Amino acid sequence: MNRIALLTSNSARHRWVAALLAEVAELVCVISEEKPAQNTAATHHDAQEMRNHFEARQAAEAYWFKDAPAQFSHIATQAHRYSWQGSNTAEAFALLQATNPDRVFLFGSSIIRDPLLAFFQGRIVNMHLGLSPYYRGSATNYWPLVDGLPECVGVTVHHATPVVDGGGILAQGRPYTEATDNAHDMGCKAILAGAALLQHFAKWQGPLPEGIGQTGKGKLCKRSDFSIESLIALETQLKHGLLKEYLAAKPVRDARYPIVQV
User: Fold this and answer.
1) How many other C-beta atoms can be found within 10 angstroms of the C-beta atom of residue 214?
2) Total-model pTM
3) Contact present, 19 and 107 (Cβ < 8 Å)
4) Residue 186 belongs to a domain with what CATH number?
5) Distance (Å, rounded) from C-alpha 183 to C-alpha 154?
6) For the stretch 218-250, what's the b/e string if a residue is b when 16 or more beta carbons lie within 10 angstroms of its beta carbon?
7) Residues 93-115: tens digit of each pLDDT
8) Using CA atoms, how far apart are residues 160 and 188, in angstroms rounded to an integer?
9) Helices 228-239 and 47-64 sit at what angle, rounded to 10 degrees?
10) How many domains does the chain have?
11) pLDDT, tens only, 200-220
12) 260 lies in some domain
């Protein structure tokens, strides 16, 4: 059984993924970072609509990740909590060296840099929410729905390199979509698909494959672009049957955006 470490954040989705990894490998260390507060709904002129959106996301995550352990310490040999970007501290680096994992997984942590990247080169795997390189940056499972492209909702598992979200792709997955899903259901289901891929590579014996190089620039999504107008566009798309139309032509639509499969 491989020895693995996880660098992540601290919500139910992160504990849930950690638990799935612990089912197939020895989770010797978890470093969880406290995400900074987001300045979104509270200061927006359409504050109530924004609050509704984020409350719906919390409700969806509470449903899909209800089996998450209450603490990382329940499933990991060592569990350490840091402030945001704490994974790049000398203390965290020393801790990872001491626990000596065969592989390091990233999900929801801050951007990882040297010397950690260099020390574990070829052994650090990141789970990016979104299908790279079609959608890059922030909220990459939100903007495809705004754009009317549910076929671009998914998850990318790739090597972590100095080029952010640019390492060789090991595998990608799309969520199991139903016509009645909302945006948050699809986002949570993408995490389910990604967790299964992480399990696959947590069990992998020997050196990891190099992966498929990422080509094309795709759409760069910025947190600052999030607005009430985009939220209305998303809700309008779903209300008018976006997912039903997608499912009726799923094989053809998916084929326009090929992904790397295990």
Assistant:
1) 19
2) 0.93
3) no
4) 3.40.50.12230
5) 12
6) bbebeeeebeeebbeebbebbeeebbeebeeee
7) 999 999 999 999 999 999 999 99
8) 22
9) 60
10) 1
11) 999 999 999 999 988 777 898
12) no
